[in-house]
Each structure stands twice: as C-alpha cells, then as structure tokens.
Amino acid sequence: MKKCLRFPTILVIPLILALSGTWIYGANPEEFRIARLKYRGGGDWYSDPTSLPNLLRGAERVLGVTAAREEARLSIMDESLFAYPFAYMTGHGKVRFSDEEAARLRLYLVSGGFLWADDNYGMDEHFRREIRKVFPDRELVELPFDHEIYHMVYDFPGGLPKIHEHHGGPPHGYGIVDGERLVVFYSYNTDIGDGLEDADVHSDPPEKRGAAMKMAVNVVAYALTH
C-alpha cells in the first residue's frame, strides 16, 4: 500500500503567501493532484464537474504549484488513493461508507491525507453519520474564525463566504483534527463547489466566484503545508 509522502518545499511560492512547512505529494513530486471520492449510497458524487479542474488552475496560478489538468475519480478502496494527498467529496444526497471503507479512509487521513467535504445541499445528515464511522472517537467541531484555514492566503475574518443560499443563515466550517493537524474540513450551507464552476453554469456574479476560489485556494494551501 502506498502512503502519502511529504517532500520538502521546492517550488517557487509568491512571497506574499508566507507559507511554511512541507508540501505533500503523491507518486509524482512535480504535480499537485486532487482525488474526487466516488462514494456509495446513491448521492451524486460527480456533481459540479468543472469545479475541481478550475481549482487546480487556481492553485497553480496563486500558489505556484504545478497542477494536474484534471481531477482523479477514485473510490476509497482504490489502491492509488494513497498517492493523492488531497481528497474532495461533494453531492446532494446519500453517502454510505462500509466498515472497511471507513477504516481505510481513517488510515488515509492519519497517514498524511486530507479530505475536504463540501455539501452541495442535501449531503449533511448523511456525511455526518458516515464520518462518525471513520472517527468514532472524535467530534466534527465548528472551527473558530481565527483558524488558519481562513487566513492562509486570503483573509476571511468571518469564516466561510456564502456562495449559494440553501438553508438560510450563515455558512459553517467544521473539522476533525488528528494531533495538531486538521484532516477533515467540512464546508456547509455555502456550496463553494458551485462557485468554482465555469461562469455560465450557475451565472454567479464575479465577486461570488472570486470568493469561492479564494477560499478553496486557502483550503489547498492549508492541506499542502500541514
């Protein structure tokens, strides 16, 4: 089984980022890649198909990394998952992890991997139930606004930006920590993924799409330096 590997920072990073630590790479240390998780249960894991390619371009532009052209689409049990430091999942409906999948996802995360789950409206109750299988001993807790994920590259003093209105009220960012490292980030009631899509998909105004990209770049920057 391949493990997530950490390599010293070797890429040119704009000085304004003031990032420290090490970058996490998989089998190819020249390229940052994202794995979209294909989960069971019936939810549309494949939704927002243009969001991750756009995020890869944004990370390349802002962070100075060399990024893959497209996302990888992998199940939790796929042997190559451990070659991808950054996993992403979204959807509108049901999520189901088997006990074997939950154990393997936990191993992936405590071995150096990172999961960003972005609710696309309707995933919340299912994700909360299933992530408890992964970490039955840890709570999914709301992150304070001073958490560094909100300030890595761009400042979000009020936490997550609100991109789409689903439930009403403010967005919420939750996390699970392993030691001192955030290993799961869950964005709820905002729909960052919709804001990352091509401009003609949802017709979001530029300021909404810009906020979504900036927050997503912050998430990538956090994952790659912790």
List the helices and strands and how they pair.
Layout: E1 5-7, E2 23-25, E3 34-38, H1 51-63, E4 72-75, E5 86-91, H2 99-110, E6 114-119, H3 124-134, E7 141-142, E8 172-178, E9 181-188, H4 192-196, H5 199-202, H6 206-225
Parallel strand pairs: 3-4, 3-5, 5-6, 6-9
Antiparallel strand pairs: 1-2, 7-8, 8-9
Helix pairs in contact: 1-6, 2-3
CATH top level? Alpha Beta
Gross CATH architecture: 3-Layer(aba) Sandwich
Q: What oligomerization state is this entry in?
A: single chain
Helix content: 25-40%
Distance from first to last alpha carbon? 22 Å
- Class inferred from helices and paired strands: alpha/beta
- CATH H-level homologous superfamily name: Domain of unknown function DUF4159
Low-confidence stretches: 1-27
Strand order of the largest sheet: 4-3-5-6-9-8-7
Overview features:
alpha/beta, 9 strands, 226 residues, single chain, two-stranded antiparallel sheet, disordered N terminus, 7-stranded mixed β-sheet
Describe the structure in brief.
With 226 residues, the chain is α/β, with parallel strands linked by helices. 29% of the residues lie in helices and 19% in strands.
Notes on the protein architecture:
The protein has 226 residues and is an alpha/beta fold. It has a single domain (5-225), classed as Rossmann fold (3-Layer(aba) Sandwich), CATH 3.40.50.12140. It has helices spanning 51-63, 99-110, 124-134, 192-196, 199-202, 206-225, and strands at residues 5-7, 23-25, 34-38, 72-75, 86-91, 114-119, 141-142, 172-178, 181-188. The strands form 2 sheets. It has a 7-stranded mixed β-sheet. It has a two-stranded antiparallel sheet with strand order 1-2. Strand 5, helix 2 and strand 6 (114-119) form a beta-alpha-beta unit. The longest helix has 20 residues, at 206-225. The two termini are 22 Å apart.
